[in-house]
Write a structure and sequence with these properties.
- The protein is an alpha/beta fold.
- The chain folds into two domains: 160 residues, Rossmann fold (3-Layer(aba) Sandwich), CATH 3.40.50; 220 residues, Rossmann fold, CATH 3.40.50.11900.
- Helices cover 53% and strands 10% of the residues.
- It has 18 helices and eight strands.
- A four-stranded parallel sheet has the order 2-1-3-4, with helices on both faces.
- The radius of gyration is 21 Å and the shape is globular.
- The model has no long low-confidence stretch (mean pLDDT 97).
- The structure holds iron/sulfur cluster.
- The site of iron/sulfur cluster has 12 residues, from helix 7.
Length: 414
């Protein structure tokens, strides 16, 4: 089978607006960092951002910077610098890319946004280990390097049923953050502001969920590769009206695509699930490869990770604890299997691609037999691709291409 045919990625009109609001976000952080007009918190991507926003912090997300280092392929030149100071090539390559970039005095922000010379200086570093321990070690490096306070939430891992005991422990940890954060921000905690931010985050989440749900249609209007880019505002601008307005715009465009029968992949024949981290430096190549194979990669647990359904402004602490504890990455194998099965059935998918991301065991779900179990349960094939989120030394493009083409042939053979 040849993938050497026209493989144009369709433009999403809302992209221009997304670029603008992301630029505004980074310029605002840069300005606040320079003139110290507003305190800045660095926060892990599924950390307690709403609490920080309600206390008046601007919030910066190092993982977003890690993804930019991957997407721009700057990571390759940065990872060795972190390795050289003792951070293993086997640990999270967001961490090693980001720390290495700091050591090299490099940032993709300078390339993308004229006038920005470096990262916004943090006043506090806040983590939640719900996704992995690496985020805590990552923040701890900056805490030592920049002499900035660090604090966070330690979440149980491999959770099946989310018990009241688990939630009350998380609630207590969230509340414990308030006094030191009040001191750093200089603002008193205001429960009404907290409720307002949570309410905007909830709206953002609901819209992002609707955006992803448009892919239940055939043809599906949004590829996984596009979704990884368009989830940017859900990650860094949740809690704001800007994010809400953006997803209203994107949703409208995707709904128009459904009405007019426009899919992300022309002649969509196969519909696939991407399980695990994106390979940031190869998004375009992979997108084009699948377009050439008339195959649409249209569902993922990764993009779904910024849907926080539990947020409830009427019960802000408990609902926030639940929202950040029920995300896919924290859960046990049984939960994950059921979650993936439901999506495969609802989206009428033909196969599952597992990305075994070398430096992210936390979000590589193919290592304990899950692909085989899902094949049996769902009677569909799976494929495991070896690679990495940022460290392209772990990824063989030729090998992946051959595997993917063979996988699609297998689908064709029925
Ligand atoms: S979940 Fe994976 S990619 Fe994300 S910070 Fe943790 S180790 Fe890195």
């Amino acid at each position: 089978m040849s993938a050497e045919k026209k493989t144009t990625i369709k433009k999403i009109q809302a992209t221009g607006q997304m670029k603008k609001i992301m630029a505004d976000y980074f310029f605002e952080l840069d300005r606040a960092s320079r003139d110290q007009s507003q305190k800045i918190a660095w926060c892990t991507s599924v950390g307690p951002a709403e609490l920080l926003l309600s206390l008046g912090f601007l919030v910066y997300y190092p993982e977003n910077h890690g993804a930019m280092l991957g997407a721009t392929r700057m990571a390759a030149g940065c990872i060795p610098a972190a390795n050289a100071i003792g951070y293993s090539p086997d640990i999270c390559s967001y961490l090693t890319s980001d720390v290495g970039a700091y050591l090299n005095k490099q940032t993709p922000l300078s390339m993308a946004y004229k006038g920005i010379e470096g990262l916004p200086h943090p006043d506090v570093l806040v983590f939640n280990t719900n996704q992995c321990r690496d985020v805590q070690d990552w923040m701890a490096w900056y805490a030592r390097e920049l002499d900035v306070p660090i604090m966070g939430i330690s979440t149980f891992r491999n959770i099946g049923h989310i018990s009241d005991d688990i939630l009350s422990g998380i609630v207590a940890q969230i509340k414990d953050l308030i006094p030191p954060l009040e001191k750093i921000s200089g603002n008193k905690f205001d429960i009404d502001k907290f409720r307002e931010v949570l309410s905007r985050s909830k709206k953002c989440s609901e819209l992002w969920k609707k955006v992803l749900a448009t892919n239940a249609s055939a043809p599906a209007p949004l590829s996984f590769f596009d979704a990884t880019i368009h989830m940017g505002p859900a990650v860094v601008l949740r809690g704001s009206d800007t994010a809400v307005k953006y997803y209203e715009l994107l949703l409208k465009e995707l709904e128009e695509r459904i009405v007019t029968g426009v899919g992300a992949v022309d002649g969509e024949k196969y519909r696939l699930y991407w399980e695990g981290m994106p390979i940031w430096g190869k998004l375009r190549e992979l997108s084009e490869l699948f377009i050439g194979l008339n195959s649409a990669v249209i569902a993922s647990s990764y993009c779904n990770s910024w849907i926080f359904e539990a947020f409830d402004p009427a019960d802000p602490f408990l609902s926030m604890a639940r929202a950040y504890t029920e995300i896919f990455i924290v859960r046990d194998e049984d939960f994950k299997e059921k979650y993936i099965s439901d999506i495969v059935n609802n989206f009428k998918l033909d196969g599952i691609l597992f990305h075994d991301s070398k430096t992210c065991p936390n979000n590589s779900n193919c290592r304990y037999g899950m692909p085989g179990r899902l094949e049996k349960q769902l009677n569909i094939p799976t494929l495991t691709i070896n690679g990495d989120l940022n460290d392209l030394r772990c990824y063989s493009e030729e090998q992946a291409k051959t595997q993917i083409e063979a996988f699609v042939e297998q689908l064709e053979a029925g």
